[in-house]
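Replying to the earlier thread about multi-chain prediction with a worked example.

Input:
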Amino acid sequence: MGKVTVVGIGPGSYEDMTIRADTALRACDAIVGYPVYVDLVRDRYPGKELHSTPMTREAERCQLALELARSGKTVAMVCSGDSGIYGMAALVYELRGEAQEPEIQVVPGLTAACSAAAVLGAPLTHDFAVISLSDRLTPWETIEKRLDCAAAADLTIALYNPASHGRPDHLKRACDILLRRLPGERLCGIVRNIGREGQSSRILTLAELREAEVDMFCTVLIGSAVVKTVAGQLVTPRGYRNV
Amino acid sequence: MGKVTVVGIGPGSYEDMTIRADTALRACDAIVGYPVYVDLVRDRYPGKELHSTPMTREAERCQLALELARSGKTVAMVCSGDSGIYGMAALVYELRGEAQEPEIQVVPGLTAACSAAAVLGAPLTHDFAVISLSDRLTPWETIEKRLDCAAAADLTIALYNPASHGRPDHLKRACDILLRRLPGERLCGIVRNIGREGQSSRILTLAELREAEVDMFCTVLIGSAVVKTVAGQLVTPRGYRNV
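Result:
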């Protein structure tokens, strides 16, 4: 019996992978994943059996990984960011059910909130929330409620999946909810293609964010009440200087 | 002029560091940090100048790193977890002020929410909040408000700093706030010493969590409404099977 390692590869650059993720990819027989993520790693780990399934075929992909493991293979299932956050780890556990085999190991990776924050400066210094704007698996009303509560709690907010072809106006709708509680001048940031070729970032106000063009390669951060810019970086002070 | 790289070393094991963090530590002249974190890395990176300052002397530590960089040294300032989340990155930016030198680079790392989740199974699959129970820098009323809003929003909640010598009852007080909205049977998890010797974990209910013994080496996760156990792992289903 083989095993399935669900590997978070981070934002996409080799340097932002953990050593554990790198080791798992070196050691595996087969790499399974969404085509974009398999393409990100295939050249660095030659000689592996490669399998990919498209975006809406996640259950099929996880079943395939479990089948390969049952046939004795060591399988690395690659996910972008952290393998547990909007990733495949839960689905692999669910599809295995109450069986104890094949062995499943979850290797966490840098999630986009952390890697986007490091590009912008240090905006996640204190309490924060991570919320996806995709309503493919979550009712929009739930997303609205979470945005409203996060703003009421003065949490820094990281928005994942701020837009896609099928829902071009989700970020605008999210900003409208946040603007009920937060001022239009609140500082925010957008990072696109984190750690990949063509990485770009922008600091802007919440009012400007409402009008901004974003796509599925963007991560958005909305600052808490104390966020500010320092030498052009987005910074949430921790407060040590006042203690 | 040297530079300051603020390095998130993750939970503490070498394998959970990113390749970028490892490279920064190899390349630096001096390592600066809280004594425990300097001790975690000193043997692996011999021949470095080592500097540490105690827990309440963070500003002094950051000033020292900036001074060393001004004197031409390449400085790695080590932080546990992610260098931007309850870490030193913001303070280094603040203390440098509007100057553009020395150069500051933030290297993100695995934050405890991610590494704890991977130990417990896959409880962070969907939207979540990270909240620290330390009131050293945040008024307790703010913490209470954030806990209440996170529970109202049905976010999975990761609690950092659930207890220390000076505030042994913070977790109990936090549970009491959460129990106003969440059932006592809600599944939670505790992970202690993530990625270090003596790592342990436990899945328990919110009612049991209220009575649990925790210390500053623990990270606590509180599940959302859909959390469950699968083969002994704490899992938040993502819902693909129902789509």
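The helical segments of chain A are 19-27, 35-42, 58-70, 89-96, 112-120, 140-152, 170-179, 206-211.

Feel free to reuse this layout for your own posts.
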